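Can't paste images in this forum, so I'm doing it all in text. The chain is below; anyone willing to post the predicted structure tokens underneath?
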Amino acid sequence: MKESLLKVAAIQFEPIIGQKERNVNKMIKLIGKAADQGAKLIVLPEMANTGYVFATREEAYGLAEPVPEGPTAKKLGEIARERNVYIVSGICERDGINLYNAAMFVGPEGYIGKYRKNHLWDVDKVWAEPGDLGFPIFKTPFGRVGIIICYDGWFPETTRIYNLQGADIVCDPTNWVVVPGIITAEKPISAYVHMAMAHVNGIFLVCADRIGTERGTTFLGNSCICGPGGFVAGPASFDKEEVLIAEINLTDARRKQWTPFNQIILDRRTDLYDALLGYKTGKLHAW
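Text version of the structure:
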């Protein structure tokens, strides 16, 4: 099988709550840094343009924007065209009266699509609606792309569904946090959970986390790029701004045969469990 090389970037930085102009300018600067190093697909953190820990739903509503009509989406679209790159970024989305913890996907050709977080974490449930777009696959010149956001990654069904739909790579704009007694700042399990999900599904995962402490919530950093064989780049630091770069071979995600006798999808005991793990609205990929 011919190699299919792609340079990807996970951008780790500290958004400041409510300072959208400052945050977007920082995002643009770091996107430029990644593009200068040859990255073609660039992933930014969850809620990268607004910060994350909203005091009220009213605060979230005041900072939210429509996608793709809003100023952040338009600006990132312009940068994607100028630098000939693909960008996935977390954003606080407003759709009528509804708010979503969302991620937007833009490329040189313009707006590609969006994903809305399906598994809401903690105070997400105060201001956001659960995602209603399922697990969409976005087709690009380099391959099939899926998106999850943060807490979605703790549900094995998400990455397995993307595998079953033929995804080569899954982008994860995330805000991993310290959870006392469960997830600590020292050697956080978050990166290893996602490394395992990439491995058991034979796909690539690009996880871009934020850093810093916001309204009493400490974020973990440790952004990483994972593949079928484990970590490709990272985990990054706990508290430093970083642009994590890796060249990945998407052929490794398409080479489903692990040994002459083992193909992880065909080896599933679907006589013992539902073939699609309950996912009814997606389309199974014909390998």
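The two ends are 14 Å apart (CA to CA). Residues 20-36 form the longest helix (17 residues).
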